[in-house]
Fold each of these.
Amino acid sequence: MARKQGSHSDISGPKIRKAALRLFAQKGFAAVSMRELATEVGVQAGALYNYTSDKQTLLFDLMRAHMEEVLSAWSAHPPEVAPLDQLDAFSRFHINFHFDRAHEIFVAYMELRNLTPQNFQALEALRRQYETELEVILISGQKSGVFQVKDTRVTARAVSAMLTGINTWYRDGKTLSRPEIVEMYVDMVRGIAGVRV
Amino acid sequence: MARKQGSHSDISGPKIRKAALRLFAQKGFAAVSMRELATEVGVQAGALYNYTSDKQTLLFDLMRAHMEEVLSAWSAHPPEVAPLDQLDAFSRFHINFHFDRAHEIFVAYMELRNLTPQNFQALEALRRQYETELEVILISGQKSGVFQVKDTRVTARAVSAMLTGINTWYRDGKTLSRPEIVEMYVDMVRGIAGVRV
DNA sequence: GTCTATAATCAGATAGAC
DNA sequence: GTCTATCTGATTATAGAC
């Protein structure tokens, strides 16, 4: 024990990413120093640079990994046929996926302004790709007449903002359970989409 | 001209607040230095401390001023009787009020984590006060049966997130005008509240 | 009220020993 | 791969002249 040196690439990598996500989410990217992150992980500051070329790249890699996981998970989701079922499935997927990724979603939506222009463009492309998944659903329901939507792009953004907003206040173990939250939001998303009640 | 010294309390104060809001919104509180802010205003860094005791207080004062303005403006709003009219009025008020305060709303909702615990508590009280204004409307409409709402607190948060989200993407002069945005969101808020179409 | 100058600390990133 | 040590520059905030 008390080993001060040695190779830990198999455990330090995940520890760094996990600690960085938590610290960036809680204090903000600019407010977290590499020294603080290193202390949290249990290494010296210099050791972090074996895992990332610089602080900016660390942030970008975390954000990109999150968006790619979202897109991948949604792609692997069982498909629905009817637009209304698709919309409900999207709501449930989004909420459940982010319940256990509070830090990820916080960083992904709050630290966009701390990305370099190039990294911002790359991440914005992924974000738009995800938003388009929702917009496609809205368009199909709009065509079939089951949704009353004036502008699918604006509606997709409104739905996204509402769903993502859950993570700014919901904490487990309070008065409401996760399934209760999910079903309430499924209903409210239907309302935004103009589904006749 | 080219006056390097002298008294400017009447103009430096507002200039500092305006520049701080813009910089904090664009780059984040932690990423903006007092030197950068001073340069933006056109003074030296030390001169800023004639207007604020420290950087934290500057942030808090900006956020508190914004929330108090929101509450004050909503209080001065002409009252409506019917819950549906109240809800529409709230949607219109919130959107229009924040159209010209993009920086303020960005700072107010993104920099909460950079407040000291004491300042956070104070601001959270104001934020909750505003949210309660909306919840009261939802409760009255719930009682009268014009709204189909399961949980007024959750619904108020959902509406807030959706309305506030406008400022993350809307810019003037694009395809959509402000009144168009307002009316679309008024409809979507009705949908969240379960108003039968 | 603003300036210049400075104190005291901390930032990101690197070099070389092990 | 991690450590210690360090470089270079930036940070908040203050002191005293004008």
Note: Chain B is about 65% helix and 0% strand.
Amino acid sequence: MVTIRDVAERANVSLGTVSRVLNGHPAVRPVAREAVGRAIAELGYVPNPAAQSLRRMKSHALGLVIPDLLSPMTVTLTRAVEDVAGRAGYTVFVADSRLDEGLEASHIARLLERRVDGLLVSPVQPIAAVERCVSKMGRVPTVLVQLRKPVREFPTAFVDEQPAVYECAEHLVSLGHRRVAVLHSGSRAGGGRFRRDLIRGALAERGITGGGDLDRSFAETGECYAAAMAALNGPERATAILVGVHKFVPPVLRAIRDANLRIPDDVSVVSFGDSDWAESISPPLNVVVVDQAAHAEGAMALLLKAISGEPLRERHFRSESIYVRRGSVGPAGGCVND
Amino acid sequence: MVTIRDVAERANVSLGTVSRVLNGHPAVRPVAREAVGRAIAELGYVPNPAAQSLRRMKSHALGLVIPDLLSPMTVTLTRAVEDVAGRAGYTVFVADSRLDEGLEASHIARLLERRVDGLLVSPVQPIAAVERCVSKMGRVPTVLVQLRKPVREFPTAFVDEQPAVYECAEHLVSLGHRRVAVLHSGSRAGGGRFRRDLIRGALAERGITGGGDLDRSFAETGECYAAAMAALNGPERATAILVGVHKFVPPVLRAIRDANLRIPDDVSVVSFGDSDWAESISPPLNVVVVDQAAHAEGAMALLLKAISGEPLRERHFRSESIYVRRGSVGPAGGCVND
DNA sequence: CTGTTAGCGCATTCAT
DNA sequence: ATGAATGCGCTAACAG
């Protein structure tokens, strides 16, 4: 292993000088700087990050805790975070909680032990629980992402879905839909009850009462399939289904297929979140989406500022989602029960 | 920050003793061991990984370089790797090359600079290029994964697709398919030409010559759509399409839709790789898949052994893929050109 | 069995 | 502008 010391000898300078050029310290004679540069190149010297971390008391690593790597939106977010972090000289540990609160907690603990300089969490647990995890070892700078609204305890990047949801509700109502099912996540990730309430509110303002049997939460694929089936059967079946978590669209499609129904003739479908699949199947799905890259950049800006110790002028970063019309929403006419 | 020294004082033992209990050294009096344990708990001591790394000259981190996080198979692999690695006391840096050779190279370089103890690479670059990257800084233990066949330069985990491909070919031929299009990745990841040749071989043994216009490679969504369109048009259009990369199934579906064709009446489809979507759309897709978790475990076993310095008795780990029949393959009768 | 000691590679302070 | 010296937190070798 070639160390800073080897470089120093090769360049006929002291160890301190090498360190200085490495860290861009101005007070170094150009001649020396150049000699060091040459020595580094010739020896193929690479700084030892463990030694740097130990000395600087900084790991130059960040932690990103996301709810589910199988969600394409999450992947987009992850990539954007890595890009921004990389440009700022950080590497990032990605931890996938798989929608499991306990796993999320243990991931946060592990990242804290690894002494990450900052944490980005898209929480599955209640905020208070996240707070407890993060505080366990003296509160590292932390930003919560993918929330639906800002919270008091942390700086956050949140997505305001109200405009998109209102537009979507308007669209459905104008096409005659009266019985709209809302299938939402049982976990906090993906909006959960908050998102359901937002949708219900938008619908209610347009005279659609609902909820009750039509609203169902679920935690995994099988439950989601059952929930969709339930909404699709019975005397007063739904004419439209809003799926609150993109990865659970497939079981909903399966339920519709198994119920011998067709999109959008018999039932309309809107997904929260998007993917190539949603855009490519027949018919392509209407979706409510947010620009995850912009979201990630906003969050990273907050985090980097927090790490640098600057007080945050704006504690929260707001994005807005949009409603994209494709081919999965049609008139409610197909339903004979109306 | 509470250090080993604080623990030592609190437990009235020396620094060395604390270190010993921490590392499970046997020669420690039970009384001392217990006192140290108590002190650790009371102080909430957590070892500093940077200091450990520096001293041990081991980072206890692994690097996993994968071609595309948007592929569900890759995510499954990633999760399995993290599980096994975690149990062995390693954390893993996941780097997504996004099917880009240059990005893969720079990721490998970054991981090497981070001084990972081992590397798992699902290569997009030619093997020789990977070899060059990895050798740049004195060859860290490296295992190549998701290959189609073992290579000389590295220990590998590979997937033998021959049995599944032969079964699939048999299925298609028995249903009267004569014009089969093979859409494969232009990059090495996902099989590329190797997979195409395997398929062509299987088909040829059953008397189906082909290739030529019917075989097309692509690097991104738009190209794949065009390739599918081309196969679907013309006087002698394909009656079956094999899609070599799962994430590129959506554009193929779009092309089929845009060509006003139906699956499986007009055209049969088989995908390499699987997902909830493939299983849930109408009709559900036939697929060729491999158990990624088992694959990952095999690869990790090789890597951990290599890291420990043991000579590898078996340098390669073999998995076998299977052909899953669902609803996307039917008789070739729908094609009037036959 | 346990205390003491010597670095691991580097950034930084203090002289010069 | 630069060399020398110090110590970050920890492990391992050595001497008791």
Note: Chain B has a mean pLDDT of 92.
